[in-house]
Design brief:
Layout: H1 8-17, H2 20-26, H3 61-64, E1 77-81, H4 82-88, H5 95-99, E2 105-107, E3 120-122, E4 131-134, E5 137-138, E6 158-164, E7 181-186, E8 194-202, E9 206-218, E10 224-235, E11 244-256, E12 261-275, E13 280-281, H6 282-288, E14 308-325, E15 328-349, E16 358-380, E17 383-404, E18 410-411, H7 420-426, E19 428-450, E20 453-472, E21 480-500, E22 503-513, E23 535-546, E24 550-562, E25 564-569, E26 576-581, E27 584-598, E28 601-614, E29 627-637, E30 640-649, E31 652-655, E32 670-673, E33 676-688, E34 697-705, E35 713-718, E36 724-728, E37 733-741
Parallel strand pairs: 4-7
Antiparallel strand pairs: 1-6, 2-3, 4-5, 6-7, 8-9, 8-37, 9-10, 10-11, 11-12, 12-14, 13-36, 14-15, 15-16, 16-17, 17-18, 17-19, 19-20, 20-21, 21-22, 22-23, 23-24, 24-27, 25-26, 27-28, 28-29, 29-30, 30-33, 31-32, 33-34, 34-37, 35-36
């Protein structure tokens, strides 16, 4: 385990030692909430995002909606509450499965629910082209701004998820406001003291054990409250020998400091190890079976011995929000997150030493990020002014070596003919350090010229600087030491008009921005690379309607994608360089609605029609589903709860390599990945036992994913010979969960 620059113990001492005077001046934390509005337009009080084993009956469209929007929103959004996460999602799930409930979002769970890394596609934008945040803090892989769904926040740690389909207002921070934001909010302490064990067992020998404890309103600390949990997950996975083992710790403490200040300390740590099977062709599926992944044979390159990853990740912050009086509020979060990935991959038969040996690559991706996010707001009868900034510093160590597994994992070079120092260089695929400094400043004003009208206008300035120290640069293997700085200014304007207390309409024009990808340096002369960072201009309109009987919204969007990067290979030198294509257009219609039928039963439907084409060639952008849909029945009455949902993902195009997006004739291979449906069923019963002194409540739940046992395969790539590679989706799988409150 790598040494931590700041230990968790030290963070705890700092959190407990901050005096009130410092908190009011420096404000080192800000726990923002996204409280929804009520149907009459009034703002709800901030509520704790706690998971309740036994809840009051939920019988209206407002309380049963699995996906909804807010009346005061200024862009298309979907909110998924903790009750849906707890009752309708597999206990092993990650955030990608929660986001998959929303319009225009798709994902693929190749090894079972939450049992392998998965990526979301949002309106056709891939992971790395949109933000993912936790309690308002953006985090991402430093090289491409992508994410690792199994490495940070299991579903049991999430109290609410908000999918914003757009770049947000000026105060929306992050490396990739380009395509939207998936925002997770952490689960809060419960309002009563107690211990809640959760045990789950299901298909693929999957076991989840989760132990949570809460302390509420602890009088000696002025009403402080705490939640702490430990989770252990183990699974063999749907694919053969593609196991996953994970340990997760979570701690959150809310500390009142005087009547107007709240201190927050949060930390979570995750350790995981899993096998990494490759995608397969149809011939392999026919010969080996649908669940073919890795093999239990040390002499085979598909052995788990040569295809696995070990990861460690943490995320911590100290926070404070302070009401200064007179409508002024100041807040800030300061913290750090870590990602440490040791990956053993791409095994081969034959090494420099012997053709019979098994070789492969060892890869390290290690980064530690430090961040600070501050906001100052002032609210009066005319509106709300907000200003602040976000800064992040990341050091990223990246290297990859060729190794010889047969010889114990030593570097793979011919020791008989090559000197050790030269051999080390020959076995080095890349060796580099990457430093990134990010600063964003923003100011916006939410003006209320009329009681039912709000106009939000603002601007955000972003500054990104990368410094590269690469004795062996990735892809080129050339030496490179240099830096690159990019800046951008992003204006936004949006309006929201309350047509009636239960009905609003909104419109937005906003600029999105994607920070420079590290791939821009993987060329022979990076200093001559003038490729601009990617931008979007987003134009969106929508309306939201919310009553106890019907909860619904619909929106339309049009996006102008500028500065689309293009990889070109020089046929004379076989070297790659980057250029710019003309860009692309994204457009579509999205909607979501919940209808309360009565007696605890509600109907829900959401969906989208999406189109994404390159500007010049007019070709469809690959990997973009033409439509999505979710149909669901939700029941909650008399302690019984159930949900039956059916997710639809429309047809997609998959292209072979060599396409220039501006020239249609460069497309040599194209296949249509077929559409697919998948049905999930969850049902259970919870019983309050308040009259007992020891056991307060009990809850049982049964989860059945892929209820109709559809034998589905998702095209992952296509070769020049039109041979398709597939990700095979699991058949019907079951999970049984028991939890109690003590």
């Amino acid at each position: 385990m790598k040494a931590f620059p700041l230990s968790l113990t030290a963070l705890c001492y700092v959190a407990c030692a901050i005096p009130v005077t410092y908190s009011q001046v420096a404000a080192i934390a800000f726990a923002s909430s996204n409280s929804p509005n009520t149907a009459d337009g009034s703002k709800e009080k901030t509520v704790r995002l706690e998971e309740i084993e036994v809840t009051e009956k939920r019988t209206s469209a407002l309380t049963q909606a699995p996906v909804e929007s807010r009346l005061d929103t200024v862009q298309p959004q979907s909110i998924v509450e903790v009750s849906t996460i707890n009752n309708s999602i597999a206990p092993s799930a990650d955030y990608t499965m929660i986001a998959n409930l929303t319009p225009s979002v798709t994902t693929v769970q190749a090894n079972g629910p939450g049992l392998s890394e998965a990526k979301n596609i949002l309106r056709g934008f891939t992971d790395g082209q949109y933000n993912i945040t936790f309690d308002g803090i953006p985090f991402s892989d430093n090289n491409s701004f992508s994410h690792h769904s199994t490495s940070y926040f299991p579903a049991k740690l999430i109290g609410r998820m908000i999918v914003d389909r757009g770049p947000g207002t000026a105060s929306t921070i992050g490396q990739a406001t380009f395509g939207g934001t998936m925002a997770m909010l952490s689960k809060d302490p419960r309002t009563t003291d107690g211990i809640v064990p959760t045990l789950s067992y299901g298909s693929f020998r999957t076991f989840v054990g989760h132990l949570e404890g809460s302390s509420a309103n602890f009088a000696p600390l002025g009403g402080a409250s705490t939640i702490a949990s430990y989770q252990y997950l183990t699974s063999d996975g749907f694919l053969t020998h593609s196991y996953e083992r994970r340990h997760t710790l979570y701690f959150k403490h809310l500390q009142p400091v005087g009547p107007h200040t709240t201190l927050t300390f949060l930390t979570t740590e995750n350790w995981i190890k899993f096998g990494t099977p490759p995608s397969v062709t149809q011939a392999t599926i026919d010969a080996k079976g649908r669940d073919y992944g890795l093999v239990d044979d040390a002499n085979n390159i598909l052995s788990p011995l040569y295809n696995y990853q070990k990861k460690e990740a943490d995320f911590s912050y100290i926070g404070l929000e302070t009401d200064l009086g007179g409508g002024w509020h100041v807040g800030n979060k300061v913290g750090t997150y870590l990602y440490d990935n040791d990956s053993y991959q791409t095994p081969t038969q034959g090494t420099k030493t012997a053709k019979a040996n098994i070789g492969g690559t060892y890869q390290l991706n290690y980064y530690r990020a430090w961040f600070d996010h501050a906001e100052l707001t002032h609210e009066d009868e005319h509106g709300t002014f907000k200003t602040g900034g976000w800064g992040e510093y990341v050091r990223n160590d990246r290297y990859q070596y060729l190794i010889d597994y047969t010889r114990g994992g030593v570097l793979d070079f011919n020791v008989a003919t090559t000197a050790p120092d030269v051999g080390t260089l020959a076995a080095t695929t890349y060796l580099m350090k990457n430093y990134m400094r990010t600063a964003q400043l923003f100011a916006e004003y939410d003006w209320h010229p009329l009681p039912d009208l709000s106009i939000n206008a603002g601007v955000r300035y972003a500054h990104f600087r990368r410094d590269i120290e690469a004795p062996v640069n990735q892809t080129t293997r050339l030496r490179y030491f240099g830096e690159r700085t990019d800046t951008n200014t992003m204006p936004s304007i949006a309006i929201n008009y309350r047509l009636k207390p239960e009905w609003s309409a909104y419109a937005q024009v906003a600029k999105g921005f994607l920070a420079p990808n590290l791939q821009l340096f993987y060329v022979p002369e990076p200093s001559k690379n003038n490729v601009k960072p990617q931008e979007t201009m987003n134009y969106q309109i929508g309306t939201v309607y919310k009553t106890g009987r019907l909860n619904a919204d619909i929106d339309a969007y049009w996006i102008d994608y500028k500065y689309l990067p293009l990889t070109i290979t020089d046929t004379a030198t076989s070297q790659q360089y980057y250029a710019l294509a003309s860009g692309a257009y994204y457009s579509g219609i999205e909607s979501q609605a919940t209808l309360s039928v009565g007696g605890g039963l509600s109907l829900h439907a959401n969906g989208s029609i999406n189109r994404a084409v390159y500007k010049k060639s007019k070709l469809d952008i690959p990997g973009v589903s033409r439509s999505t849909a979710l149909l669901a029945l939700i029941y909650n009455h008399g302690g019984f709860f159930a949900s039956l949902s059916d997710k639809y993902v429309g047809e997609q195009k998959i292209y072979g390599s060599g396409l220039n997006p501006d020239i249609a004739s460069t497309l040599k291979v194209s296949v249509a990945a077929p559409s697919r449906w998948s049905e999930d069923l969850a049902f259970g019963y919870s019983q309050s036992l308040k009259h007992r002194n020891f056991i307060r409540s009990l809850k049982i739940k049964v989860q059945v994913d892929n209820l109709l046992n559809r034998q589905q395969q998702v095209v992952s790539s296509v070769s020049a010979a039109a041979v398709r590679s597939f990700i095979v989706l699991p058949g019907r799988n079951y999970f049984f969960t028991f939890s109690g409150e003590f």
